[in-house]
Amino acid sequence: MIKYFKTIIFILCLWPLTAISLDIYYNELGAEPVKKIMNHFGEWTLIFICLTLSMSPLKRFTKLSIWIKLRRMLGLFVFFYATIHLLTYIGLDYRFDWQPILDDVLKKKYIFIGFSAWLLLIPLAITSSQKMIKILKNKWKILHKLIYIIAVFGSLHYIWLSKTIFFKPLIYSIIIVVLLALRIKIKKKDINYG
Amino acid sequence: MKKIKYSEITPEKIYLRRREFVKKLGFSTGSLIIGQNMIGKAFAANDNLQEKITERRYVTTYNNYYEFGTRKSDPVEKSQNFKTSPWNLTIDGEVEKKITLTVDEIKNSFPIEEKIYRLRCVEGWSMVIPWMGFSLNKLLEKASPNGKAKFVEFTTVFDPEQMPGQRYPILKWPYKEGLRIDEAMHPLTTMVTGLYGKELPNQNGAPLRLIVPWKYGFKSSKAIVNIKLVEKMPTSSWMQASPREYGFYSNVNPRVDHPRWSQASERVIGSGILSERIPTTMFNGYGDQVANLYSGMDLKKNF
């Protein structure tokens, strides 16, 4: 049963890739196709960060462990979409022209923080397997707290690239702040009762 | 009367084809006159760059016009019921005679010509747009600026009932922009009343907008109701929002980066998913005409 559930979620998680592929195929990307593709994957990365961060609070509230079983998959989709987002920028937008890319990373704070977030995702993706959890034991938990920093970096990346106060980046930031705040509460509870 | 009737103007499809036509004949784009439509001289400066006129559907659906919302699609979606008539433009401040004109009076007072200019947005994209309009200096001369007139301030209409974006503090409303008097008097600085041989669509700044082709797009105010000649440098809405990011001059300059965007290159709107960025040129390619306005100025400081 859980196996089927996971398969269905996996297929749903591929929707962002399918949707943009259809748009490319039917040439419905509008005036700035490269920017649209880049923004599409960037936004879905943030959505998957929010989904990943929602799993342990959901477990607390529903007392169902199934959420935790989805967490790894969702986390890997964060890395998957973040990587496509980055590749769109490097390959499709800048044609692997490294000089302007390097300039951007060093001089533009939103690119610097976005790139940093992607770098921080790498160790999490590498250590995502069951085997690595066993090898790293307690260190694994500490290491994977990096996702909190990644989430903050991701929302800053979106806020800083906006020209003025925009609605959407604010919404994502609020969601991320709420999801992180939930954890502080949970911890306090643990101390009180445990 | 010199005003061109809409019916006399080349249909859009021929517009797009005629540049091939020009090429086939082997003429330089700067010198050929087709009917009444002269392909702008200013355009010749960009011959080595792309020169294809941007498709109308992109020019009219991909707009930055925060009065109607911050998404590119907001202006076309939310401006269709915007009332552009009656519309008055007042020219006042340091002038011999303050004047108020209706849009029809303006359209009938000056010969409307087609002007094809490149438009470079500060966000790093560009279009090539066939505007209909006349040089702003003709309009300003009607009000006779006096000796104290050193700068010109443009004010966009303030009407939050009709402009949903103005209900939010995205920028300080009404939108204000400014030019130095010599920039405003330059023949390339254009008052625009039409687009693609037709009326100016609401999402492009109807009924009356400015085009300053060698500056980033936000310098070209839309839906203008007031032009004020002033002695001191005006503060534009964008300067007020972020003085570090937006300077008064905002000339297109590939060597001066915006804190958010590199200005060294640009994406050409409508060029497709696989086309490359093109290098941005100084003064958006109009250096031959306007560089002398800034001789001796440090353009890194005066960005």
List keywords for this structure.
heterodimer; A: 194 residues; mainly alpha; 10 helices; globular; B: 303 residues; alpha+beta; Sulfite Oxidase, Chain A, domain 2; seven-stranded mixed beta sheet; five-stranded mixed beta sheet; 8 helices; 23% strand; disordered N terminus
What does this protein structure show overall?
The complex is a heterodimer of chains A (194) and B (303). Helix content of chain A is 85%, strand content 0%. Chain A has 194 residues and is mainly alpha-helical. Chain A has one domain (2-193). In chain A, helix 3 (33-62) runs antiparallel to helix 9 (146-161) and helix 5 crosses helix 6 (109-126). The mean pLDDT of chain A is 92. Chain B has a single domain (6-290), classed as Oxidoreductase, molybdopterin-binding domain (Sulfite Oxidase, Chain A, domain 2, Alpha-Beta Complex). Helices cover 17% and strands 23% of the residues of chain B. The model of chain B is unreliable at 1-11 and 17-50 (pLDDT under 50). The A-B interface holds A 24, 29-35, 37, 92-95, 100, 103-104, 107-110, 160-161, 163-167 and B 58, 61-62, 66, 70, 72, 123, 125, 169-171, 241, 257, 259-262, 264-265, 267, 269-270, 272-273, 276-277.
